[in-house]
Amino acid sequence: MLFPAAIISAALLSIVSAAPQRRAPAQVITSCTVPNTAALTFDDGPWVYAYDVSKSLVAAGAKGTFFLNGDNFECIYSDTNVKRVKYLHDKGHQLASHTWGHRNLTLLNWNQIHDEMWRVEEALIRIAGVQPAFMRPPFGAYNDLVREASGVRGQKIAIWDLDTGDTVGATPAESKARYDQAISQKPATIHSLAHETKWESVSNILPYAIQKLQASGYRLVTLAECLGEQPYQWTQAPGVKDPATWKC
Ligand SMILES: *[C@@H]1O[C@H](CO)[C@@H](O)[C@H](O)[C@H]1NC(C)=O
Ligand SMILES: [Zn+2]
């Protein structure tokens, strides 16, 4: 007996949809979407210069986004780093995940990737009461497994469209020229990558970028704002440091 094709494909569809669903891979974001916004992002902290970055931004009526590690230059649970993270959050900057130990996620298996992601999320929940909605993989290195893990964790992957080059050997003059070059093309938005661990980036390039971008008509907002999205999946009251569990 012959079955009409429609019945066969309906049966096949029900088999397919009964199979376990894999979560959609995380969306990868490079550029902002809200016109005339620029998102200045800072990786690899928390670090000594967090206060200087924040002060420059706040003095200009601007906000930044910090992609934080858990255990990179200094453990995120040190007293000084806990203060820095709280300070950045209190000043209205966006906190995001740069994962725990700045490892190349493309070399890790599924469980290792989740561990790198979860541990810094836990730290940000404990310290600031925020579960980030955005993550940036160290070195910008991701593959399908990383995208799927981020998707499962409800996070989008944030890359950038303007690299200051500050950790790959660009001089301050070259980094400034990259801003000039980008701005001269009059893009609707800009999403720049810099590192809060580099003193020249903080003391020299950042003030230049703020002045130049604002003079060119860009509003300096968080990554979430430049996308018209929420910075966090959820928030709760911050915790109180428990030295027994808040450690790297
Ligand atoms: C990360 O690992 C990939 C291999 O999956 C390699 O191609 C890439 O160069 C590595 N990136 C860094 C920064 O080490
Ligand atoms: Zn980094």
UniProtKB/TrEMBL annotation:
InterPro entries: Glyco_hydro/deAcase_b/a-brl, NODB_dom. Keywords: Carbohydrate metabolism, Cell membrane, Cell wall biogenesis/degradation, Glycoprotein, GPI-anchor, Hydrolase, Lipoprotein, Membrane, Metal-binding, Signal. It comes from the Eukaryota. GO terms for biological process: carbohydrate metabolic process; cell wall organization. Residues 1-18 form the signal peptide. Its cofactor is Co(2+). Its main location: membrane. It is a lipid-anchor; GPI-anchor. GO terms for cellular component: plasma membrane; side of membrane. Residues 36-221 form the NodB homology domain. GO terms for molecular function: hydrolase activity, acting on carbon-nitrogen (but not peptide) bonds; metal ion binding. It is found in: Cell membrane. This is Carbohydrate esterase family 4 protein.
